[in-house]
């Protein structure tokens, strides 16, 4: 997921500060990974799902912010382009029937999001990259209007 940023140009001092912070974070990660028992525990599963917003003819609908606003669920996040969203599902215990539970989360969310697509006579399509995108579907005009990296 992207993070919101407040500026778009950076000084040499900014880059050095970033480099220092990156090294600190990598050192912290190394310490965590070296802990005895790291990664042990109850198994769990999690998932994210890329979604394209399509009209009735299968063309991208550049309204991800409007759909997100009306869906009002923190697990739904904006992607880089205006016709793409991402669902981040709640992690589930790996015991029992986790895939059945995950399937139900997916189906419930798809049904709810498809209702939100009614104003565009459209639907959401769970797919990583829409193979029918055309040249006009790329460029600054279709980027989500948020500062992020």
Describe the structure.
With 149 residues, this protein is α+β, with helices and mostly antiparallel strands. Helices cover 34% and strands 15% of the residues. It folds into two domains: 32 residues; 99 residues, 2-Layer Sandwich (Alpha-Beta Plaits), CATH 3.30.70. It has three helices and six strands. The radius of gyration is 19 Å and the shape is flat. The model has no long low-confidence stretch (mean pLDDT 92).
What key attributes describe this structure?
149 residues, alpha+beta, Alpha-Beta Plaits, 2 domains, two-stranded antiparallel ribbon, 3 helices
CATH C-level of the largest domain: Alpha Beta
**Strand content bin:** 15-25%
Extract low-pLDDT stretches.
none
What characteristic shape results from the CA principal axes?
Answer: flat
What's the main sheet like?
4 strands, antiparallel
Q: Kindly report the spatial arrangement of strands forming the biggest sheet.
A: 3-4-2-6
Number of strands: 6
- Number of separate structural domains: 2
What would the CATH topology of the largest domain be? Alpha-Beta Plaits
CATH architecture of the largest domain: 2-Layer Sandwich
Structural class comes to alpha+beta
Total number of helices: 3
Terminal Cα span? 9 Å
Secondary-structure element string: HEEHEEEHE
């Amino acid at each position: 997921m992207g993070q919101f940023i407040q500026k778009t140009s950076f000084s040499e001092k900014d880059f050095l500060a970033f480099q220092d912070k990156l090294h600190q974070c990598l050192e912290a990660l190394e310490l965590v990974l070296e802990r005895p028992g790291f990664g042990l525990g109850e198994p769990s599963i999690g998932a994210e799902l890329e979604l394209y917003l399509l009209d009735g003819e299968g063309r991208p609908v550049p309204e991800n912010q409007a759909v997100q606003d009306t869906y009002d669920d923190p697990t739904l996040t904006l992607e880089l382009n205006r016709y793409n969203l991402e669902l981040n599902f709640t992690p589930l215990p790996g015991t029992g029937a986790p895939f059945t539970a995950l399937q139900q989360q997916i189906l419930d969310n798809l049904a709810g999001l498809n209702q939100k697509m009614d104003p565009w006579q459209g639907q959401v399509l769970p797919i990583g990259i829409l193979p029918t995108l055309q040249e006009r579907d790329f460029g600054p005009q279709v980027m989500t209007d948020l500062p992020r990296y």
